[in-house]
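A brief tutorial aside. Many learners find it easier to grasp structure tokens once they have seen a single protein encoded end to end. The record that follows does exactly this for Putative gamma-glutamylcyclotransferase. Read the sequence first, then the structure, and try to relate runs of similar tokens to stretches of the chain.
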Amino acid sequence: MGRLFGLDHALFVYGTLQFPEVLRTLLGRVPPLEPAELTGWRAAALPRRIYPGLVAATHGLARGAVLSGLTAPEWAVLDAFEDDEYDLRRVRVEATNVPVWTYVWTVAADPADWQRDRFATEHLARFAARSARWRRDLASFSDSAGPGWAGPQM
């Protein structure tokens, strides 16, 4: 993890981390975000969670953004924020074919796709506020899922 920072090690984000409100609460800033797509994958809804997981899908297309310019401490925050069920892997984004890192979901996911717009409308404000509390007081969150929000299925 210590070598994963700077312009050469970008992160494809497809869920809550593509929202500037969440990035600002976690990192204190919004690093450069460029819209991107990842073929062969989809942002899947997850059982009892309001955030998605990236899963392989033969005809899938995951829309998100490439987050660049992360510092080593910022990588550490994002890694701590993610569930234990995510695995950091290299992928190639559409159009540029540039290798980037992303968090891939490693356990069962729903057959339905995550609904970005629904999350933004119904959950983003509360999610960003809870992310800020997590960032200020990590010890107050007892689960392994970063802020670990179970919630209604998306």
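Self-check: The longest helix spans residues 124-136. If you spotted this yourself, you are ready for the next section.
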